[in-house]
Amino acid sequence: xxxxxxxxxxxxxxxxxxxxxxxxxxxxxxxxxxxxxxxxxxxxxxxxxxxxxxxxxxxxxxxxxxxxxxxxxxxxxxxxxxxxxxxxxxxxxxxxxxxxxxxxxxxxxxxxxxxxxxxxxxxxxxxxxxxxxxxxxxxxxxxxxxxxxxxxxxxxxxxxxxxxxxxxxxxxxxxxxxxxxxxxxxxxxxxxxxxxxxxxxxxxxxxxxxxxxxxxxxxxxxxxxxxxxxxxxxxxxxxxxxxxxxxxxxxxxxxxxxxxxxxxxxxxxxxxxxx
Length: 275
What we know:
Blueprint: H1 2-70, H2 114-118, E1 139-145, E2 151-154, E3 157-161, E4 167-170, E5 172-180, E6 185-193, E7 198-202, E8 207-215, E9 219-222, E10 225-229, E11 232-238, E12 240-248, E13 252-260, E14 266-271
Parallel strand pairs: 1-7, 8-14
Antiparallel strand pairs: 1-4, 2-3, 2-5, 5-6, 8-11, 9-10, 9-12, 12-13
């Protein structure tokens, strides 16, 4: 009996160990079975996610052209319109028949070609043909000779200066006003302009007195013309610039220029002792 009591605990422990071993075996098998069962599910979930990502990328790529088209970046190509190039129609050449020599008296005039006759408007209808008038035939030129530079006005409008060789004016009579503020001179002149011709107009310069003196004394030349010895008073000279030369046998020669005007008498004095 004691032996049976001793063996019972041993059997119980052996039975417990077997049970534990079977439990471990069952746990390993269950884990392996569970792992093997979850593997297909995970693979299916991965494929599903990849498919969703690909669908999203395709949707994004397909939406870009639509957005660009809505913003006007992609527009349908405009049809190319080819402009028709007109074909120039050659004009008929008109050749005027030139007779080799003048027709004899009493003979009929040479016939003109049909093209030349067609080019004459109004022929045969009694209407006078239109004739082009050259601009030069409606105007003429005026050449003005003045002692000083003057502005030329016609009907209150400045048309030129006397520095120009000629001034163009319409054909007919004109009243010109010549003005020089520098010398205080004004003059009015009438001129008749003829077509294609040059009309000359001369303006006489008025004379005014000038006074010339030198210290101690000198011989005087005005515009290369000897006037006399100083002092010289009330010497009549035309308006405008003049060159005056003073000469002394011991003190030498001096030159100066004076502008004679209508504003006031000109007074010229030279001290030959100063250098």
